[in-house]
Structure prediction request, 108 residues.
Amino acid sequence: MIALASDTEGPRKWAPEDTDSESEDHEKLTYVITEPCIDLKDASCLDVCPVDCIYTTDADNQYFIHPDECIDCGACESVCPVSAIFPEDAVPDKWKQYTEMNKVYFNK
Ligand code: SF4
Prediction:
């Protein structure tokens, strides 16, 4: 004798896909260093970054934040004397290209 589990067709529920998950849907954020850093390289950010994820070389004219290493603490943003550092989602439109430049810098 074989018992089959069948005929359990109850009412079907249709659930729409997440309609209000926007606030929970953030990928890892990073901070971005923009134009005011160029040729200034004040370096205050280096002193406060808890994970040492801000890099440059003598050949570079600005600092760069490693997007995978940044823990999004915001410490650098508040000490930058020229307000060059922004959370990725708040970079001013005129400096949007710096987000990509920071990422490209680490893909050399
Ligand atoms: Fe470093 Fe924090 Fe600035 Fe990221 S946000 S670069 S972890 S100081």
In short: The chain has one domain: 28-105. Residues 1-8, 10-26 have pLDDT under 50 and may be disordered.
